[in-house]
Amino acid sequence: MAPIAPLGKPRALALLRAGKLPFTFGSPHPTIAVVEQDGVFRVRELVVEPTEAEVAAKASMDERGLWTPEQHYALGKPTGRVFIEAPTRDALAEKLEAYPWPRDW
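^ thats the sequence. predicted structure below, dont judge the formating
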């Protein structure tokens, strides 16, 4: 899989409003997730736990001789920084509309 283009705010809002949760985005690799956690809706950083990545990389190299950035980023979990949080999907959409959208999102 090649690096991906930024999702963009309009597409993120469309996915959110359609209830297509969770979803991830970021460019060139996914680094952000929109999720429902602990009864609230969040835009949150994806974090790759270093030890898990090291184990997965070793297993992949031993098995196939290959470890790609896509495999690494696929291990990301929405456990990092919370950029936006709201009690409902609609409230998150409102906050997301006003949020200064980073170019790599």
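Residues 86 and 92 are 5 Å apart (CA to CA).
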